[in-house]
Amino acid sequence: MEKPDQMISYAEAAHEVELACRRLGMLHLAYARTLVQQFGREQGEKLIMNAIKEYGKMVGEQTSQKVSEQGLANEPQYFGEGQARSLPKLGLCEEVVHENDQIKVKNCSMAKVWREFGEEDLGSLYCFIDTAKYMYYNPNYKLTHVKAMPAHGTDYCQFELEETTEQERADFFANKDWRYLDKRMMKGSK
Asked: Do the Cβ atoms of 29 and 122 come closer than 8 Å?
């Protein structure tokens, strides 16, 4: 084990974060498989989505609080600003590109794990965190997938921010099946 005061390279740090992200991908897959095996596909997926929504609530509310602590409004341009950042700068993926009004994330470490295990459908349920965290941050907006590695068989995820409708907000907060809020994620490549 290295000494705590020893510096490591950027590449080593990125690798260490990637290992943690891969483990998170496996953890999601393990509990998702267990729920589906125990309760069947339909009920298992419902429980997975409940867990993802709760996770989104935790992330979205924490992000909202940290944005507010900086004296900023919970508006899209401030999501993840400063101390409100909720994702690692390195290791989660190879590259993040901001183009026009979209974000492109190349080679997500967790999606690669789900692909390696042949479980992209079950793994992709995790990706609904993006919609959930944003709706808990500011329910007037949702972050949706234009493309997603596990659902579309690509090597990247591409996101766009959309305004929500009154009906979408009502369904999301009324505990109805809210997957339709990210329609392209649901359709995938199948």
From this structure: yes
Strand partners, 162: 142
Domain residue extents for the chain: 10-187
Summarised one tens digit per residue, pLDDT across range 105-161 is 899 999 999 999 999 999 999 999 999 999 999 999 999 999 998 888 899 999 999
Domain 10-187, CATH number (from 3.40.50, 3.30.1380, 3.30.70, 3.40.1350): 3.30.1380
Q: How many CB atoms lie within 10 A of CB 183?
A: 10
**Neighbour order of strands in the sheet with 141-147:** 95-99, 102-106, 156-163, 141-147
Within 8 A by CB and 6+ apart from 138, the residues are 64, 74, 75, 76, 79
Rounded Cα–Cα distance for residues 129 and 59 (Å): 9
Distances (CA, A) of 13 to 1, 7, 91: 14, 10, 8
**Whole-angstrom Cα distance, residue 28 to residue 34?**
10
